[in-house]
Design goal:
Blueprint lengths: L2 H13 L21 H15 L16 H9 L4
Length: 80
């Protein structure tokens, strides 16, 4: 399973999106009402747990949550 596919699974589970289709160009912030500030923290925690990465507070920017692709790139940059 690709990083993007894993990320979509995490987003669907964390945000309770059910069968909502997600793909690389799916807009996240401002498009998914479920993705509020608390949900962002839950997603970040889920990403850290799933991928075994550490995300510092200083590394978190809204631009990373623009689309599935930008969030995937953010995660992939932190993978060993």
């Amino acid at each position: 399973m690709s990083t993007e596919e894993q990320l979509c699974t995490i987003l669907k589970n964390t945000l309770s999106l059910g069968n909502t289709p997600l793909h690389a160009h799916t807009a996240l912030l401002g498009n998914l009402p479920q993705l509020d500030s608390m949900a962002v923290l839950q997603v970040l925690t889920a990403l850290e747990d799933w991928f075994g990465i550490v995300i510092d507070d200083d590394d978190i920017h809204a631009r990373h949550f623009a689309t599935v692709a930008t969030l995937t790139a953010f995660v992939e940059a932190r993978l060993p």
